[in-house]
Amino acid sequence: MARTHTKLIRGERRNLLYGLLFISPWIIGFFLFLVYPVLSNFHLGMTQYSGFGTPEWTGFANYVALFKDPLFWTSLYNTFYYVILAVPLGVIVAIGLAIAMNQKVREVAWYRAILYLPSVAPVFALSMMMIWLLNPRFGLFNYLLSWAHIPAINWLGDPHWSKLAIVLVAQFGAGHIALIFLAALQAIPPSLYDAASLDGANPWRKFCHITLPLLTPTILYDIIIGLGLGLQVFAPAYIMTGGGPLNSTMFTALYIYKNAFEYNQVGLAAAVSGILFIINATLAIVIFWSSRYWVNYHLE
Amino acid sequence: MMEAFIRPLGTRSLFEARQQLGSRLFLIAASLFYLSPMYWMVVTAFKSDQELAEFPPTLWPHELVWQNFDQATKTFPFLPYLGNTIFYAALTVLGSVLSNFVVAYGFSRIKWPGRDLLFYPVIASIFIFVQFPVNPITMVPMFSFFSGLGLVNSFLPLVLPTFLGNPFFIFLLRQFMLQIPPSLSEAARLDGANEFQIMGRVILPLTRPALLVVALLAGVNAWNDFLGPLIYLQSDKLYTLSLGLTFFKTMHRIQFNLMMAASCLVVLPVILVFLCFQRFFLQGVNLGSGK
């Protein structure tokens, strides 16, 4: 009896050692590329550091400077504007596409490929295309709008439209999420709809009472991922507008980049990164926490 | 309740036909919209300078100006940058497949105390660090870290992280490996195979389709990476195609036909890879949903 006992323990210890050995690359990566930089942001954020020499301790000076810098607040405003517009729009577009793809349309494989295509294309190249597509005089978009007698819009040059133009770029990635929604739609047992039909439910009621509740886990996933992507949006703004016009697309990520790599304000940039992390993590946790009130895990 | 039975079959299929027509129109409109950037890119790439200045813009070029591609590749060092991009993508694929396979094995094929608890940080990092490893939250300290080691202006800061696991790929492979019956490993173990032999000879061949998904996604991610090269590659000899394209933006007078021709050449490989491996891309998405 005693022998089997020690044997078991030995087997468990062996498993523990192997397990830790195999996951050790991730443990190193986790501490080196995630834990270290997140903590370091708060340390560097308390220093004056140009990127050369040694950081000089200045306490909360960077945070005070940020608090007084209108551009910092503009960048937060722009970022939230973007997230609040792009994330819900992304969910709606993706669900709409998924429902359409779930109908008995014969050539659905084509639509799937076409809608997914822009989400594999590089965002930087898509941004390049958009510069030309949205060109006020020679761009395709304004030309098509002119057919509907809509006057030319200076998408990237007018602060009223510039953020919308960048929200538009994000929507080209919706095909990817739409396929995840499609998988969720196909996992819904048809018997639920049959039962609802017997009770005389119309399509809209079926959508509200069957489809939507059963899509909520995927909606949660989409919102959390969209939140992270939105709060950290960088490449489209860097390429299409460079933060302009009139700082209307100066997002927080761009503000961090410019301070760290163009103005040699590394300490200040780290302070902003730390704040961005806190915002992102807090919102993600709040949304997860709220999910118990609106996410339906019934099918799983 | 009885109405559903009484309703004649004809009206019902008429309703379905209408619903189908609506879906089809919606999908066609959406497809046109989703294709519009690429369409405009290709059309513009073939236009002559004169046609580019025409108003209203032409929806199809009068004649296809193939020289645009030739000229575009002469505007910036296309071939060296292509080489750099392939180098970066190839190492990323290698690192991602190796490290994430081993890590996911440790998270799924061996039972050890604390395993599932340690998996929570993996999930948490997927959600907060959507872009991994280079993102606006971690880029400043990571840059100082690599700069302190004298590794900035090399591919090492971009490639090294891929050898140390990517939370999303770990998640994806773990889900896949959990579906392989544990009895397969047990049988091999009874036959005297050690853990490494089980991993290499039993689990590796069975995981191949999921590893292909990881390889494809990792390769495309590296090809599409902009922020990483922007920060770490400073000498223009090391530039990737993503940085090369920005040359066209900084030119005194932007030549959009050349810019779009260059964009075509950069996007084309990704499109081809996608079309060849469509099934795996679309499958990969659904592996990721945890279903």
Give an overview in words.
The complex is a heterodimer of chains A (300) and B (291). Chain A is mainly alpha-helical and 300 residues long. Chain A folds into two domains: 2-36; 61-294, MetI-like (MetI-like fold). Chain A is built from 13 helices and two strands. Chain A has a two-stranded antiparallel sheet. In chain A, helix 3 packs across helix 8, helix 10 (203-231) runs antiparallel to helix 13 (266-294) and helix 12 runs antiparallel to helix 13. The two termini of chain A are 41 Å apart. The mean pLDDT of chain A is 90. In chain B, helix 5 crosses helix 9, helix 10 packs across helix 11 (195-223) and helix 11 (195-223) packs across helix 16 (278-288). Residues 1-9 of chain B have low confidence and may be disordered. Chain B is mostly helical and 291 residues long. The longest helix of chain B has 37 residues, at 9-45. Chain B contains 16 helices and no strands. Chain B has a single domain (67-288), classed as MetI-like fold (Orthogonal Bundle). The chains are: A mainly alpha (300), B mainly alpha (291). At the A-B interface, helix 1, helix 3, helix 4, helix 5 and helix 6 of A face helix 2, helix 5, helix 6, helix 7 and helix 11 of B.
List the helices and strands and how they pair.
The complex is a heterodimer of chains A (300) and B (291).
Chain A lengths: L1 H43 L2 E2 L7 E2 L3 H8 L1 H33 L5 H13 L2 H11 L6 H8 L11 H13 L2 H13 L3 H9 L4 H29 L3 H6 L11 H10 L4 H29 L6
Antiparallel strand pairs in A: 1-2
Helix pairs in contact in A: 1-13, 2-13, 3-7, 3-8, 3-10, 3-12, 4-8, 8-10, 10-13, 12-13
Chain B lengths: L2 H4 L2 H37 L3 H4 L14 H9 L2 H31 L6 H14 L10 H10 L7 H4 L7 H12 L3 H9 L4 H29 L3 H6 L8 H5 L1 H4 L5 H21 L1 H11 L3
Helix pairs in contact in B: 2-15, 4-15, 5-9, 5-11, 6-9, 9-11, 10-11, 11-16
